[in-house]
TrEMBL record:
<keyword id="KW-0808">Transferase</keyword>
<dbReference type="InterPro" id="IPR041370">
    <property type="entry name" value="Mlase_EEF1AKMT1/ZCCHC4"/>
</dbReference>
<keyword id="KW-0963">Cytoplasm</keyword>
<keyword id="KW-0489">Methyltransferase</keyword>
<dbReference type="GO" id="GO:0005737">
    <property type="term" value="C:cytoplasm"/>
</dbReference>
<dbReference type="GO" id="GO:0003676">
    <property type="term" value="F:nucleic acid binding"/>
</dbReference>
<dbReference type="GO" id="GO:0016279">
    <property type="term" value="F:protein-lysine N-methyltransferase activity"/>
</dbReference>
<protein>
    <submittedName>
        <fullName>EEF1A lysine methyltransferase 1-like isoform X4</fullName>
    </submittedName>
</protein>
<dbReference type="InterPro" id="IPR002052">
    <property type="entry name" value="DNA_methylase_N6_adenine_CS"/>
</dbReference>
<dbReference type="GO" id="GO:0032259">
    <property type="term" value="P:methylation"/>
</dbReference>
<dbReference type="InterPro" id="IPR019369">
    <property type="entry name" value="Efm5/EEF1AKMT1"/>
</dbReference>
<dbReference type="Pfam" id="PF10237">
    <property type="entry name" value="N6-adenineMlase"/>
</dbReference>
<dbReference type="InterPro" id="IPR029063">
    <property type="entry name" value="SAM-dependent_MTases_sf"/>
</dbReference>
């Protein structure tokens, strides 16, 4: 297994090489430790699926292109990933890219209902309207596990809409944020329920 900083360097290095950055105010939320934890969880999930001799694992990244980029370079061949993203610069990922505007949450070109084992969402705005619409997308795509990163103030609404609970792990960001962010999941996950001291 790679050292944590090596895995993180891969994700951010790709962004630099491709001259792509997630725009602040839309998607410039490059959560460093959060990204690594999500990758570790997805990797563990994929390994478990391989042990069950299931052919494919599907992961949908809703408005979180940095996670998608990391998955591309570390995932096994049996894993399919899709990026739902508003920023059309990410169309360089061709068939994996689906243009996504949360204002039309079910306009999902070529995506089938309940077709992803894991759906990870990072709503671009901290508002009830945005979370409600993102939740429609997540519910449509998900067949099982949901991971959500949003403001702590959205906890009650997130639980109501997606049946998720807050995790112990607290996402960090390279810039200081005015609002506390938290990670939520609809299942028990060891990796996202470790504190910094436990990790």
């Amino acid at each position: 297994m790679w050292h944590e900083r090596d895995e993180t360097a891969v994700a951010f290095g790709i962004c630099v090489l491709l001259h792509i950055s997630e725009k602040w105010g839309t998607q410039m939320m490059t959560y460093q430790s959060f990204l690594l934890k999500l990758w570790q969880h997805c990797k563990s999930f994929m390994e478990a699926k391989k042990q069950m001799i299931l052919v494919k694992t599907g992961i949908a990244c809703v408005a979180c292109p940095t996670l998608y980029q990391k998955l591309q370079h570390l995932k096994p061949a049996t894993c399919t990933t899709v990026l739902l993203e508003f920023d059309k610069r990410f169309a360089i990922y061709k068939e994996d890219f689906v243009f996504y505007d949360y204002n039309t949450p079910l306009k999902l070109t070529n995506l089938q209902e309940n077709s992803f084992d894991v759906v990870v969402a990072d709503p671009p705005y901290l508002s009830e309207e945005c979370l409600r619409k993102i939740a429609q997308t997540v519910q449509f795509l998900s067949s099982d596990k949901v991971i959500l990163c949003t403001g702590a103030v959205m906890e009650d609404l997130a639980r109501e809409l997606l049946g998720v609970s807050v995790c112990l792990f607290i996402p960090s960001h390279s810039r200081s944020l005015a609002n506390a962010f938290r990670c939520f999941a609809n299942f028990k996950t060891h990796l996202l329920n470790q504190t910094v001291a436990d990790a």
